[in-house]
Amino acid sequence: MTLPVPVVLVHGTRTSSAIWHAQVAALEAAGHPTTTIDLPGHGARTGERFTWEGAMAAIDAAVDAHEAPPLLVGLSLGGYLSLAYAARHGHRLAGVMLAGCSTEVRGKPVGLYRDAAHHVTRTLGLGQGTWHVVTDMLTAIAGYSPLTDVRRLRVPLWVVNGRRDPLRLDERRFLRAAPTARLTVVPGAGHDVNSHAPTAFNRVLVEALRELTHGVHPARAPRAVRRARVLTPAALLPAGRLPAPRLPRAPLPA
Q1: pTM score > 0.85 for this model?
Q2: Taking burial as the number of CB atoms within 10 A of a residue's CB, which of 91, 100, 103, 158 is the most buried?
Q3: Is 236 exposed, middle or buried (0-12, 13-18, 19+ CB in 10 A)?
């Protein structure tokens, strides 16, 4: 009997583990053991200061809590942290899914990240009064190159972005760095794609877990299968209303 792949979910700046409520419900319904964490300086750990080391320790503890290697899922800051962890501890993971973090941090205007954090905070009403964590975060990731870590990955990689996300500037470069990665662009969604379009995000998440469960690993697939896809309106409907569609393959959006 094949056991369900566990999942670890890592949130973004100035939010908390609460942003994953729609994903937790879907994953638990599908039987996947799921862990959400609060990074230092966030949620239940608001009184702490954010550090890179503390964030890595939080992810490590969550991964270690599962008997089987989990799929590590990260949004925004959580995506960059998940990528960094996967590049160094891939042997402990089944795969990694990144959302809202397809921009090379090094050399990019940090205002993009500040704007994205502000948008998520304003939309979800989380993280008020904790702007110091943004300074801590920017200090921690200064000089970090996600593209370098994408090239180091030896685990399956999925990338999910909202079409209106300002942090998807380097999608093409990410795909060139990881030829077998899967990219999904969700129309109408912004930076916090898991909250803007939870049904679409959950569909991609469940599909990834199905592939991992049945041993269909993108990291080992032929180069020719690497394509971006844009979800159609039909694919955004709740999974129970339509059978899982064959989503169209399309060129990368401009």
Answers
A1: no
A2: 100
A3: middle
